[in-house]
Amino acid sequence: MSDKALRLGTRRSKLAMAQSGQVADAVSQVTGRPVELVEITTYGDVSREHLAQIGGTGVFVTALRDALLRGEVDFAVHSLKDLPTTQPAELALAAVPEREDPRDVIVARDALKFTDLPRGARIGTGSPRRMAQLNAYARGHGLDIETVPIRGNVDTRIGYVRDGELDAVVLAAAGLNRIGRGDEVTDFLSVDTVLPAPGQGALAIECTADDADLIAALGELDDPLTRVAVTAERSLLAALEAGCSAPVGALADLLADGQTVKEMRLRGVVGTTDGSSLVQLSTTGPVPESHDRAVALGRELAAEMLAQGAAGLMGERAH
Ligand SMILES: NCc1[nH]cc(CCC(=O)O)c1CC(=O)O
């Protein structure tokens, strides 16, 4: 391969710049080639408030993919949870690096923990998945909380807490860690309380499907166990026919015995945003040995969830 600089297409947001910068360093380490960042403005960046109306799924991703297909950049980095579940044939998911912390967290006033929030606490989140699970937990544990729909970037969201408008906001640990603001977390939400979005905490490194040399080079950053886990999670999401704004949580984690990975557990949840009904199921078995097995596992769990009424819960929307 040549020693020409590789062009990495990235969104301009703090999170995108941080994760692209980190991947750029890793890629230049494994390829020995310099990597230059090429900033691309996405429709999701200019029209954030209208994300719900324009459908959510993939708005952050489309502009980067278009730049790849036009040959303006060589590869791109996405938050895996923002990727649509269908992979275009012209693009290759060259690497899924090892996952960051998949959990959701809260940033609350006065360093409060979730379960110490006072009666009537207002918790900001724009995510129906987070609302559904927080409200379900509150109902089951006698907590009195109000989930308040909010949008915006990390600064905007944490700003609602700093200026006293909200008692807490919910964010992904991975995003805060990547921008160096992990120290603002006041509580980590157990995945037993709030299952993260499918793919949360993982990145996707994408290039065009015809660039075999680049696919092989980027593949050095792939973590096969993360890939198999997110494949099962995304297959569950796809089989539930839900977009990224739907109240679907999924997490595949590996059960290890010392250093040896023994089994994989896939958990899935859907619910109404008020938390009055949830369908939550899990399955545990051998780590899938192929992409197709991981896909099948996600489908199987989705089928069980649908049999328990999951579809009816997803029809309902936050606003
Ligand atoms: N919904 C937007 C989004 N997409 C990816 C992340 C960061 C976490 C990740 O990479 O999974 C976030 C922010 C958040 O949910 O708090």
UniProtKB/TrEMBL annotation:
Annotated pathway: Porphyrin-containing compound metabolism; protoporphyrin-IX biosynthesis; coproporphyrinogen-III from 5-aminolevulinate: step 2/4
Gene Ontology terms: cellular component: cytoplasm
Protein name per its UniProtKB record: Porphobilinogen deaminase
Cofactor(s) named in the record: dipyrromethane
Pfam families recorded: Porphobil_deam, Porphobil_deamC
Note: The porphobilinogen subunits are added to the dipyrromethane group.
Assigned EC number: 2.5.1.61
